[in-house]
Amino acid sequence: MGLLKSGQCPLKDKKGKAMAEKLWGGRFAKKLDEEFYRFQQSIHYDYKLAEFDIYHSMIHISALVLTGVLTIQEANALEMDLQQILKEIKEKKFKYDPQSEDIHTEIQNRLEKKHKTAARKLHSFRSRNDQVVFDEKYYCIVNCLEIEHLLTKVLVAIFDLAKKYKDDFFIGYTHTRRAQVIKFANYILSYGRMFQRDLRRLETFSKTQEICLGAGAVAGSFIKREHYNKAIAQFIKKYGKDFPFKIALTQNSLDNVSSRDFIIELLSALAILQMHLSRLAEDFILYSGQEYNFLQLPEEFCTGSSHMPHKKNPDFLELVRGYTGPIYGNLISLLTTMKGLPMAYNRDMQLDKEPLFSSIEIVKQELRLLAKFLAGVSLKKETIEEVLTDETIYATELAEYLVSKGVTFKQAHEIIGKMVRYSEENKIKLKDMVDQILKQFSPKLQQKEIQKIFTPFFAVKTKRSVR
After folding, report:
1. Which of 149, 223, 224, 349 has an alpha carbon within 20 to 30 A of 198's alpha carbon?
2. What is the pLDDT, as a whole number, of residue 25?
3. Are 143 and 359 contacting, i.e. CB atoms less than 8 angstroms apart?
């Protein structure tokens, strides 16, 4: 068997049709195993990077013109075709050939159909190793900005809920047991604070990333630095409005093609955000159940049971909670992939894309729905008011009252603890204890004075450190 021509794909599908050409192949004499070819393909998921790969090619075309590899006419023809592909992508009409090895090959093959010679020059002095890092970092920044926007909408929904119920009381829990009276606004805004931190993390990521090119496969490129810098400047001048990110020539070619820190950083920020989403979901699941019955959930985000007619299941919240596993798993998956790789690029790194795409799509969908969900949440005030009659949630205020009378807090803690036990054993309310009983616990206690303590207004008013 003779040697294969460079770029020729040695495979045919089951119908005998030649598969898409590859960007490599001249060194190989034997046919590639068809099952292995399918195994190592990435086109079925890395097609998501098509738009960003086109931008890399546009910069590279300019650099090749400056280097003398492409003529102006060839460059214009290639860029015109790339613009057409970009238009298809933006209009969601882009269709890839499932026979292609990856998105880089797919775009290259499409260009070769119209401009064979010029297109075959396009891959001069660059590598897919360099392309994919450019593409992925651009993808990360664009989607990070979208997530920031969606998270801002969730924050607005939280602030609206806090404003709507700014004067309403709620129950603060520790260890899932009733603790103290709080304002509902204070409760819901606790998640606002969490999401604000998440937003800052995402903003830091999107503002500090630098999209680099020029690393080649590992050692750099034949193209001069000044030509790359001029090509980048031309691209920014032409497309800067749609590309408000920092593009630069790589500072270290090995680091550029071998590092996936930026993906791990984004996945880490998304994992923390997902933790907060899951905690909110868990709270709302509990507080909307019959055992608490504090919240009314919007029916549009609940489902029923196929067997039990009465059920109103909080499925949206349960799915948010459930997706925490995949989101965490995606981060751990990539950390595990990267932890033992030798310098520089290794094919293992192809597996960075699916965890990234998965986490981004899940979080975006959750945030879109959560903003609408929160707008439909309401308080069940009657149930909350009933719980506010529970005297034990004012025990801390009672102890602090004794402190204000000169009793040490340790003594006050023990005194009130004994009073609560006495109340339970003798089935008498704390506020109904007459002075004769109260004096058994402390001479500082008087029925007339402590009765005013057992109200949510007093409990909240005495907390001077919070607004």
Report:
1. 349
2. 67
3. no
Structural tokens at position 3: 């040697």
Domain finish residue from 340, 356, 384? 384
Average pLDDT over residues 213-240: 93
Q: Assess whether 306 and 356 both reside in one domain.
A: yes
Instruction: Please give the residue that has the higher pLDDT: either 19 or 124.
Output: 124
Residue 248: inside a domain, yes or no? no
Model pLDDT, residue 184: 97
pLDDT tier at 57, thresholds 50, 70, 90: very high
Please check whether residues 287 and 153 belong to one and the same domain.
Answer: yes
Indicate whether 312 and 170 sit together in one domain. Answer: yes
Q: Where a domain ends, among 326, 349, 384?
A: 384
- Looking at the fold, whether 320 and 351 belong to one and the same domain comes out as yes
In this predicted structure, the answer to whether residue 362 has a pLDDT above a threshold of 90 is yes
Report yes or no on 452 lying in a domain.
yes
The structure tokens 């020539």 sit at 249
What are the CA-CA distances from residue 63 to residues 23, 66, 122, 222, 339 (Å)? 20, 5, 10, 11, 35
199 and 166 co-located in one domain: yes
- Are 366 and 417 in the same domain? no
Annotated active-site residue in 6, 149, 305, 378: 305
Nearest C-alpha neighbor of 247 from the set 217, 209, 202: 209
Catalytic residue from among 175, 306, 307, 465: 175
Tell me the DSSP string of 229-266: HHHHHHHHHHHGGG--SEEEE-S-HHHHHH--HHHHHH
Q: Contact, 79 vs 58, CB < 8 A?
A: yes
Is there a domain that residue 39 lies in?
A: no
Count of domains forming the chain: 2
In the chain, the percentage of residues whose pLDDT exceeds 70 is 94
Averaged pLDDT for residues 53-61: 96
Q: 314 with 335, same domain?
A: yes
What is the pLDDT at residue 20?
Answer: 60
Q: Strand pairing of 246-249 and 295-296?
A: unpaired
The answer to whether 104 is a known catalytic residue is no
Contact (Cβ atoms closer than 8 angstroms) between residue 271 and residue 328: yes
175 is catalytic: yes
Domain span at residue 428 reads: 389-461
User: Does residue 123 surpass a pLDDT of 70?
Assistant: yes
379 conformational bin, left if phi > 0, alpha if psi -120 to 50, beta if neither: beta
pLDDT value of residue 309: 86
Please state the pTM of the whole predicted model.
0.91
